[in-house]
Amino acid sequence: MRIELVLIPFLFSLVTACAANPEDLYTQEGTDPSVDELIADGSFVPEERWSTRTVLGSKINVNHERLEQKTGVLPPSSEISGVHIPIHGRRTDYENITRWFQVDGNTHIFRLFKGEHNYRRGKVEGGPSDWFETAAPSRVEAVSPTFTVEPGTWVEWEGTYTVIKPDGASNRHKACIFQLFHHGGQHWAIHLRMNENGDIYFQRRRDIDGLPRTITIGENMAGKPLGIKIRANGHDYEVYRKIYQEDEDWVLVTTGHYVQAVDNQISIRWGIYPGSAPDLGPTPDDIILFVSGVNWRVRTPPAESAR
After folding, report:
1. Residue among 105, 154, 144 nearest 264 (CA)
2. Is the sign of the CA dihedral 113, 143, 299, 253 positive or negative?
3. What pLDDT score does 4 carry?
4. What is the DSSP letter of 248?
5. Any residues with CB less than 8 A from the CB of 176 and at least 6 apart, and which?
6. CATH architecture entry for 2-306
7. What is the DSSP letter of 131?
8. Measured between alpha carbons, how far is 98 from 57 in angstroms, rounded to an integer?
9. Cα(260)–Cα(264) distance, rounded to whole angstroms?
10. For residue range 187-234, what is the model confidence (pLDDT) as tens digits?
11. pLDDT at 16 over 60
């Protein structure tokens, strides 16, 4: 009886610490204006494709202690080259765009809101009254520097995704949360995508004989950190995953290749990109995504010991 009384509280606290409740992983200070309010006060202006306006949002405080109960201590994030947001192609004044992007410690915080569009697409035929009916969804993505991959080396990108609110990833495009680009036409080679249930899956741009085009990486991942490692050399790529508290080590998801990058240059984006087709309409619901410990390095050579 004495042993049971000691073990029960311990097991309860362990289950509580490991529970996949996204709301346990952050707190929010303040509120966020609606789309209509931001249009009314001039923060969103149709046709203004490269807006430098300040658009602030509520402050998100990551519960690092609780997150690290699941992941262990993650490394600091590498310095990014900018952030794509709905009103500009690349901003670096992050303190002025906190509606969509914030940094707390080693965690990048990405948010999109119901009813938003990609406002920098410009005005469509018919004027402002129906501009919002036919513009593409909102987007927010961090961008890496451009890497020139030397022969015999691979760039290795690593980050830990924690889905907080996936509800808005419900249009037919779902939401792209990672893109590997081969330069020379800015073609994406692979995507990671997320749906409204918090499922995360891999997608190739083109079919490869004998390999599936899409692969499920994790299901119902809201509140459950997922480590992602991508290795690329401008032609070939490798994709690994680590579901914390399930996978003991990195698990190979797939390998593949794409058209050789011009000058062997590649770049990477991560965040929330629900698609660019105008007929997708506005972002269907709020989306919140954390990406922690984002870093990259060059590996020489790509040996098993480096994986």
Report:
1. 154
2. positive
3. 39
4. S
5. 191, 192, 193, 272, 273, 274, 275
6. Sandwich (2.60)
7. H
8. 5
9. 7
10. 899 999 999 999 999 999 999 999 999 999 999 999 999 999 999 999
11. no
Q: Quote the CA–CA distance of 135 and 132 in Å, as a whole number.
A: 6
- How far are the Cα atoms of 3, 52, 203, 250, 256 from residue 59, in angstroms, in the given order? 44, 20, 33, 33, 40
> How does pLDDT run across 131-182, given as a tens digit for each residue?
444 568 889 999 999 999 999 999 999 999 999 999 999 988 899 999 999 9
107-136 b/e with 16+ CB inside 10 Å = b? bbbbbbbebbbbbbbeebeeeeeebbeebb
**Is 141 in contact with 259 (CB distance < 8 Å)?**
no
Measured between alpha carbons, how far is 25 from 13 in angstroms, rounded to an integer? 16
Q: Tens digit of pLDDT for each residue in 249-271?
A: 999 999 999 999 999 999 999 99
Phi, psi of 120 (to 5 degrees): -80, 0
Q: C-alpha distances in angstroms, 215 versus 82, 209, 224, 257?
A: 29, 15, 19, 15
- Contacts of residue 216, defined as CB under 8 A and 6 or more positions apart, other chains included, come to 199, 200, 201, 202
Query: How many Cβ atoms sit within 10 Å of the Cβ of residue 13?
Result: 10
The 3-class secondary structure across 63-112, one letter per residue, is CHHHHHHHHCCCCCCCCCCEEEECCEEEECCHHHCCCCEEEECCEEEEEE
Q: What are the boundaries of each domain within the chain? A: 2-306
pTM above 0.70, yes or no: yes
Nearest one of 88, 123, 113 to 36, comparing CA atoms: 113
What sign for the dihedral angle of Cα 166, 171, 172, 177?
negative
Strands (E), the chain: 26-29, 59-62, 82-85, 88-91, 101-104, 107-112, 140-143, 147-148, 154-165, 175-182, 187-194, 200-204, 214-218, 226-232, 236-243, 251-257, 265-273, 287-299
* Dihedral pair phi/psi, residue 2, rounded to 5°: -60, -40
